[in-house]
Design brief:
Helix content: 40-55%
Largest sheet: 5 strands, parallel
Number of domains: 3
CATH class of the largest domain: Alpha Beta
Length: 410
């Protein structure tokens, strides 16, 4: 695969074996063109070449400054650092392995994010009537699945919860349910499982294209039967070290998910909120009025549920909204209100049917922990209202508000 902008390799000595080996690995993988420069010329080379990706080698003190320079470029330019480094910039993707055969797949996965970002920027430019959402750190929207049952699990949960949303699973079976029910930005597989179970789990992830590019950090020693997952790392050490190794790839995946939601919002003409995946409040109001009118004309059922997320932080509100967006039926629609509550319309559903659907949604929401504090676990309150003969959209929402007030008072 050829990229118009070159891949830039930065090394202490461009005449040494390491840059040559990297160039050979990229050439064999058809990741071209590529060019190598020394650290002294790195800053000027980035300005001159505007590279599609940067591979930095060695432990140069200028790595943080380089990361800051690269982060300012659009579209996204992945920065992969080979070998140990002391840099702290959040956009540096580590690659500690000596096996350069694994580098091209990781780089190719990152370049797909760059292509998606370029597509999004072009669409935003073409669709001038749609306002780009405010920029924020993708980690604010990220959710990581933590799997484990050993002594290190609580400390890892706290360390991860300080930076991202955390979904905990004490078994592989529970982890599989989370993988199928919601969008995740990474997996940390902690201790408590045999090597055979770890290998089988990684093989399942590799065989399912939905999860093949997920960042995966395994805290056990590397397997003798490696699985070809581009963003798989084996990291041992303190919880802070494990989290630090995982976060750059988690941030990249969360950024990719952000771009995907923004493209879906553009496809919908700006009617979908890119952060929640649900309709904007104004689009919901219009669609709800139309749905009520058609349901009255046809004599169909229609119900509305309001999920109130008590004490939920903004990250939890958006994360819960995305769960609802992913799990609700194709015919249903909803919105995240400014007060953090979620309205969902269940088409062709009477009260009994709406209760069944709402219970299924709540079962997934309740299993999600969004911070290191146990009291932050989401346990939503739900109110339901069903359309009656002659009801308008305003009348249904008014009745729902009264039910919500009555429930809060009790």
């Amino acid at each position: 695969m050829s990229y118009h902008a070159p891949i830039l390799i930065i090394a202490d000595d461009i005449s040494s074996d390491e840059p040559s080996r990297i160039l050979s690995a990229l050439t064999e993988a058809r990741l071209l063109p590529a060019e190598a420069v020394g650290w002294r010329d790195a800053r000027d080379a980035v300005i001159r070449l505007q590279p599609s990706a940067v591979i930095a080698t060695g432990s140069n003190d200028a790595l943080d400054a380089l990361a800051q320079q690269v982060a300012a470029i659009e579209p996204y330019v992945p920065l992969v650092a080979l070998g140990p480094h002391r840099a702290t910039a959040g956009n540096i993707i580590g690659f500690a392995s000596d096996d350069l055969d694994r580098l091209p797949p990781r780089l190719r996965a990152a370049l797909r994010v760059r292509t998606l970002h370029a597509t999004t920027l072009r669409r935003l430019s073409d669709d001038g009537g749609i306002e780009q959402p405010p920029q924020h750190d993708p980690l604010q929207d990220a959710t990581v699945l933590l799997i484990g049952r050993g002594a290190a699990y609580p400390a890892l949960s706290v360390a991860l919860g300080e930076r991202v949303g955390v979904v905990g699973a004490l078994s592989i079976e529970a982890a599989a349910k989370h993988l199928n029910a919601r969008e995740l930005d990474g997996i940390v597989l902690a201790e408590g499982f045999s090597q055979r179970v770890v290998d089988a789990f990684l093989t399942v992830l590799f065989e399912d294209t939905r999860f093949r590019n997920l960042p995966i950090v395994v805290t056990a020693p590397p397997s003798e039967r490696p699985v070809d997952l581009p963003n798989l790392d084996f990291v041992q050490g303190e919880p802070a070290q494990i989290v630090a190794a995982a976060l750059p790839l988690v941030r990249q995946h969360a950024f990719e998910a952000q771009l995907g939601r923004l493209l879906r919002a553009l496809d919908a003409g700006g009617l979908i909120d890119p952060r929640s995946g649900l309709l904007t409040p104004s689009a919901f109001e219009r669609d709800f009025a139309t749905a009520v009118y058609h349901a009255q004309v046809r004599g169909d059922g229609l119900s509305v549920a309001k999920f109130v997320l008590n004490r939920a932080e903004p990250r939890a509100q958006f994360d819960t909204a995305r769960i609802v967006s992913r799990l609700m039926r194709k015919m249903d629609f909803g919105t995240l209100l400014p007060d953090g509550s979620i309205l969902v319309v269940f088409a062709e559903a009477d009260l009994r049917g709406a209760q069944t659907i709402a219970r299924r949604l709540m079962a997934v929401i309740r299993q999600t922990s969004h911070s290191a504090r146990r009291e932050s676990r989401i346990d939503p309150d739900v109110s339901l209202a069903t359309m009656m003969s002659g009801d308008s959209a305003r009348a249904i929402l008014s009745r729902l508000a009264k039910l919500d007030t009555r429930r809060a008072a009790s």
